[in-house]
Amino acid sequence: MKNGSDHDLDSVVQFVPVLKYSQSDWNKMKQELELEYNTKVLNKEREWGKKLADRDKKIAYLDEQVLLLRSANEDMKLVVTEFEKTIAQLQADKLKSSSESQNTFGDVIKERDQVKSTVY
């Protein structure tokens, strides 16, 4: 039969867990996990770097388009301004021509009336 101290020793032995991995195994697993983590981080950095580069290209393209559209807009403003000047000049010429025609018509009427009065 076992005495009390042997029983206590067996209890202690039962509670001490047996290590499944050695320190070198832990170090290797830790290194593998760190490598996996660093690989994921590097892949994410590459992915985001590519996304940022694509975004920068798109922004540069859109900036170029804005400049082109602004230039086209300025050109169109000049065309519209010239068109408005031309229309205003045509209206002024028409008014002047109409006024001159009225004056000429009035002169012709006066001459006609003078001729009538001298003839009659």
The gist of it:
The chain has 120 residues and is mainly α.
Helices, by number, come to 2
Structural class by sheet pairing and helices? mainly alpha
Mean pLDDT across all amino acids:
87
Approximately how much helix is present in the residues? over 70%
Order of helices and strands: HH
Largest sheet, described in full? none
Low-confidence stretches: none
Q: Please tell me what the overall shape is.
A: rod-shaped
The domain tally reads: 1
* Oligomer status: single chain
Q: Characteristics of this structure?
A:
120 residues, mainly alpha
Set down the secondary structure blueprint.
Blueprint: H1 4-15, H2 23-119
Your description of this structure?
The chain has 120 residues and is mainly α. It has one domain. The chain has two helices and no strands. It has helices spanning 4-15, 23-119. The longest helix has 97 residues, at 23-119. The N and C termini lie far apart (172 Å).
